[in-house]
């Protein structure tokens, strides 16, 4: 606990006893609020646990948390329900002492969840103690069973317990549960037939509607809760809840849990059928409607009554008669009296409430039979009391009256046991006991329960009194018997009386007190239940009870007797308390309403509890842990004290100058009167802790660094020695290998030209490697396809080098082909054609190889462009395409006069053009197929003789014509022409000598080809001499 002292300003104190302003309810609520906002929902008042419902799941209930609290001192860890459970469990296991845990609070404050967590903790903690899983399973199965049949949805709580429950968990000598027993108190039977607005009936009625279709058919249920009157009074039938599907899914899961729980407690099929038949019969009974029939009453329909009768196993006529008539017994005679509509409704509701109450009573007995221990060895018990807290509503009736009476008795017991435990501790520790002033509520308990004029005995008398007894006559009798009681105020005009309870004033409306207190079945209905086939209801009454005319014990008296028995049980056990608080009215997480919490703080008597606890000393601690924690605050006790722990605490208190009247020394504990005293000690400790931490850290760092340094130094020395030795070994090995390598290399070099052997193998290999590496890095390798150069290889690599050269050449060719465009490819094909036509046949061919052929080879005359455009637009036919244009010189066949001409070659025709200014004049046009031959010499000259078949003269037969031209690129012109006509035979290459020319069909002139010193074309009479350079 001391570990949380330093955080008290942020999250409050963990124990209200340490609250400075412990008399202020605002300070009390503010401490709760601080902790609630930090999800710290648990706080102590010494050994009383205050629990605030968080309305959300918190990660503090897993197996890890259970193990953390297992076997720990109560104040060693933060407040938790597991601390309460562990304290009770250890007391039972280690001391064989009976314990009980009293859980109380308003509806919606988390009582049921607290009892679940305690059961889970006991089951988890004892799991290593023995093989008793069946007993644990039965204990845990009680929760879904009793929640289904005893809990309901209210305005404040979706899972509100509508009955009080006391459960004994029997623990064997080996520390594991061996059995249990359950007692129930004041089941809210009225809820079966009526629910307030916004509330629902008991969970089981809705859960059973989510059963399997076969079961619903057997019970004759529709599966829709809105079809049943008893289930839809608080929630209107026509209301549309947005979470209806979610509710039905939840009910279905809960019903599965109920079925599993029934299996766990070994219910037979017959018992299960009778149990669910009773529940279904109530639902059908609620749908029975009555109609006036004169002075009598009749059923609007017998269907629902017949179904209900079949489910409980009785005659439908007998059931209908018990609802519409009442037997009047006079000695041996019985007369049936007709009921009116109001009486019939009351009779129906009374029967439904009785069936449910008897079913619930049987369920408790049946569970007890399943939980009964079969062990004969010594055992102790842990009691769990989950009971309603003090209730104050706008309208308080008979139920609140009984509940608040119960809380008066519990408060009386609580004060008695609290003061007794305080006094016993002071006596044991030899601390003077200071009497504590507190409000003794015995006078209120006497007012309610004492005979003959207590409020309960007066109520019983009024219920039994002959004549017309009413709620007002009961109120009048109270006023007569207690006219001046200090804790009772009568308001006759408002039909109310007020009791000044220990927790505050409560006004009760007397309406319905007599009916609810005497809520009994008439004899006909008791006899009906005894005769039915449903074993649960058949055994609800003995034959004597069923036929007896004597009235049974009233509800209030039964409750008073049960409370008396409960007080005896609790007084024989050591109690632990859990007070549950609801933080708001809207069931929302992280919402803390000061008014709602303040109201509960008052009515739970928490301030009274705190005042009693603070009447003595606020803090107490054993000497050993106290000295162990705070010994650093005195130089005498630090770091160790050689004397006893008690002496050390005395020295410590003197050093801290704590006044003697603020603490006391017991036999085993030191007692501190005021919280501010222990807080000042704790603050001094926190300050001192930082100082010590600084010194410890400094010393630790210095020592640690020295150790690290020495370790590093030794490691370096060792590493250096190892590294030096390792490096020397490596160096020797390196030199040995180097010598061997050099020796082998020299031997291999000497025999490098010999056959391959072990002696020169490495040299060969290294030579090859070097050559390949040099080849890979050689920048002078051929880049062009025509470059045939290649590095000279060593002898051992000659064959490999040749293979690599070929691969390299193929690679260059492949790369060249991939990078070659369509135009380039066509040009290369022309070059190949030129090779086929002229290589080795004409002397000027080698000089034409390096130059690529062009499509236009005309002089760079400024007018050339215009002329070409003129040719394309006016001379060339649209259906043909120009392939080649070149300038040339034409020689007349008579006199051989030279004239400038231009030859244009298209896809269809051969044009002879004469340049004229910026245009061409068409001189001759021949179709390509009319060109019979092109004759060139084998010399270097550029003269070509074009032989054509002239068909332009109409009416005359075609005649052969020879035209002589000098074309600078004669090879280019001929290749272009041959490519178009596709016939290489059109070309004729002649050696030196004469060639006759034909003009107009006759021969008369010649062209003579020859070789001389210089190139020349000379006309000599009828011969054109063409001399090529030799």
UniProtKB/TrEMBL annotation:
GO biological process terms, semicolon-separated: actin filament organization; actin filament-based movement; determination of left/right symmetry; endocytosis
Entry keywords, A to Z: Actin-binding, ATP-binding, Motor protein, Myosin, Nucleotide-binding, Repeat
Residue ranges constituting the TH1 domain according to the UniProt record: 842-1030
GO molecular function, one term: microfilament motor activity
GO CC annotation, single: plasma membrane
InterPro entries reported for this sequence: Kinesin_motor_dom_sf, Myosin_head_motor_dom-like, Myosin_TH1, P-loop_NTPase
Family membership noted in the UniProt record: Belongs to the TRAFAC class myosin-kinesin ATPase superfamily. Myosin family.
Name of the molecule in the record: Myosin motor domain-containing protein
Organism: Ramazzottius varieornatus
Gene label: RvY_15718-1
């Amino acid at each position: 606990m001391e570990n949380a002292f330093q955080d008290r300003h942020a999250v409050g104190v963990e124990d209200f006893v340490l609250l400075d302003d412990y008399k202020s309810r605002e300070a009390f609520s503010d401490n709760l609020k601080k902790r609630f906002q930090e999800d710290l929902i648990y706080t102590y008042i010494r050994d009383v646990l205050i629990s605030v419902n968080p309305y959300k799941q918190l990660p503090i209930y897993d197996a890890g948390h259970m193990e953390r609290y297992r076997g720990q001192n109560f104040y060693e860890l933060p407040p938790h329900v597991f601390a309460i459970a562990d304290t009770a469990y250890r007391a039972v296991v280690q001391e064989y002492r009976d314990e009980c845990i009293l859980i109380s609070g308003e509806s919606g404050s988390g009582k049921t969840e607290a009892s679940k967590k305690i059961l889970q903790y006991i089951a988890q903690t004892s799991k290593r103690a023995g093989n008793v899983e069946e007993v644990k399973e039965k204990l845990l199965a009680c929760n879904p069973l009793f929640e289904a049949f005893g809990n309901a949805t209210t305005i404040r709580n979706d899972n509100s317990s509508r009955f009080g429950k006391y459960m004994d968990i029997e623990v064997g000598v080996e520390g594991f549960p061996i059995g249990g027993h359950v007692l129930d108190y004041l089941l809210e039977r009225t809820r079966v037939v009526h629910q307030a607005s916004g509330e629902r009936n008991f969970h089981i009625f809705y859960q059973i509607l989510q059963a399997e279709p076969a079961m619903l058919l057997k019970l004759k249920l529709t599966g829709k809760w809105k079809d049943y009157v008893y289930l839809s009074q608080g929630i209107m039938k026509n209301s549309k809840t947005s979470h209806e599907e979610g509710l039905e899914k939840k009910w279905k899961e809960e019903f599965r849990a109920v079925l599993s729980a029934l299996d766990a407690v070994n219910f037979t099929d017959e018992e299960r059928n009778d149990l669910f038949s009773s529940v279904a019969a109530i639902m059908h009974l609620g749908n029975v409607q009555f109609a006036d029939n004169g002075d009598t009453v009749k059923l609007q329909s017998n269907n629902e009554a017949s179904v209900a009768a079949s489910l409980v196993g009785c005659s439908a006529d007998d059931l209908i008669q018990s609802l519409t008539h009442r037997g009047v017994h006079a000695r041996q005679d019985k007369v049936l009296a007709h009921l009116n509509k109001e009486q019939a409704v009351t009779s129906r509701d009374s029967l439904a409430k009785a069936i449910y109450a008897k079913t619930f009573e049987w369920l408790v007995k049946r569970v007890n039979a399943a939980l009964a221990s079969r062990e004969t060895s010594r055992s102790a018990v842990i009691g769990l009391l989950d009971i309603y807290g003090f209730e104050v509503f706008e309208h308080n009736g008979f139920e609140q009256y009984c509940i608040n009476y119960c809380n008066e008795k519990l408060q009386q017991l609580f004060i008695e046991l609290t003061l007794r435990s305080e006094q016993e501790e002071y006596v044991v520790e030899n601390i003077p006991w200071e009497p504590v002033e507190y409000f003794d509520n015995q006078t209120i308990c006497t007012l309610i329960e004492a005979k003959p004029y207590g409020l309960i005995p007066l109520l019983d008398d009024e219920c039994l009194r002959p004549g017309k007894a009413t709620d007002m006559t009961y109120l009048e009798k109270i006023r007569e018997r207690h006219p001046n009681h200090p804790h009772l105020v009568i308001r006759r005009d408002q039909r109310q009386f007020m009791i000044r309870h220990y927790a505050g004033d409560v006004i009760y409306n007397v309406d319905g007190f007599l009916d609810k207190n005497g809520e009994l079945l008439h004899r006909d209905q008791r006899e009906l239940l005894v005769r039915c086939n449903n074993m649960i209801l058949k055994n609800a009454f003995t034959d004597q009870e069923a036929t007896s005319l004597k009235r049974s014990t009233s509800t209030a008296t039964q409750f008073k007797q049960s409370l008396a028995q409960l007080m005896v049980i609790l007084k024989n056990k050591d109690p632990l308390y859990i007070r549950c608080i609801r933080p708001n009215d809207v069931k929302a997480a992280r919402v803390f309403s000061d008014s709602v919490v303040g109201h509960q703080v008052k009515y739970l008597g928490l301030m009274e509890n705190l005042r009693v606890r603070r009447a003595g000393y606020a803090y107490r601690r054993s000497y050993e842990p106290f000295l162990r924690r705070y010994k650093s605050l005195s130089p005498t006790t630090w770091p160790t004290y050689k004397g006893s722990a008690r002496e050390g605490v005395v020295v410590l208190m003197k050093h801290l100058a704590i006044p003697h009247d603020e603490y006391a020394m017991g036999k085993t504990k030191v007692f501190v009167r005021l919280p501010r005293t222990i807080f000042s000690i704790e603050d001094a400790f926190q300050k001192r802790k930082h100082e010590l931490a600084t010194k410890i850290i400094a010393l630790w760092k210095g020592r640690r660094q020295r150790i690290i340094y020495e370790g590093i130094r030794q490691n370096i020395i060792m590493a250096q020695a190892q590294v030096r030795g390792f490096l020397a070994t490596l160096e020797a090995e390196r030199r040995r290998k180097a010598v061997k390598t050099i020796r082998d290399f020299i031997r291999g070099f000497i025999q490098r030209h010999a056959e391959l052997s072990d002696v020169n193998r490495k040299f060969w290999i290294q030579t090859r490697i070097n050559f390949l590496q040099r080849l890979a890095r050689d920048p002078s390798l051929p880049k062009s396809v025509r470059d045939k150069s290649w590095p000279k290889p060593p002898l051992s690599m000659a064959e490999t080098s040749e293979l690599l050269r070929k691969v390299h050449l193929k690679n260059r060719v492949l790369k060249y082909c991939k990078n070659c465009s369509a135009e380039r490819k066509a040009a290369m094909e022309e070059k190949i054609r030129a090779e086929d036509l002229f290589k080795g046949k004409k002397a000027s061919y080698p000089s034409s190889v390096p130059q690529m052929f062009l499509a236009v080879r005309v002089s760079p005359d400024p007018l050339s462009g215009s002329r070409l455009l003129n040719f394309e637009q006016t001379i060339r036919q649209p259906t043909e395409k120009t392939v080649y244009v070149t300038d040339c010189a034409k020689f007349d066949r008579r006199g051989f006069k030279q004239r400038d001409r231009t030859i244009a070659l298209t896809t269809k025709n051969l044009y002879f053009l004469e340049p004229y200014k910026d245009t061409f004049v068409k001189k001759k046009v021949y179709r390509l197929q009319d060109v019979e031959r092109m004759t060139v010499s084998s010399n270097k000259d550029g003269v070509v003789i074009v032989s054509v078949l002239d068909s332009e003269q109409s009416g005359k037969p075609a005649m052969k014509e020879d035209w002589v031209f000098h074309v600078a690129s004669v090879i280019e012109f001929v290749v272009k022409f041959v490519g178009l006509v596709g016939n290489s035979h059109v070309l004729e290459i002649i050696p030196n000598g004469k060639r006759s020319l034909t003009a107009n069909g006759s021969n008369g002139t010649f062209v003579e080809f020859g070789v001389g010193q210089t190139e020349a074309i000379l006309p000599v009479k009828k011969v054109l001499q063409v001399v090529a350079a030799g």
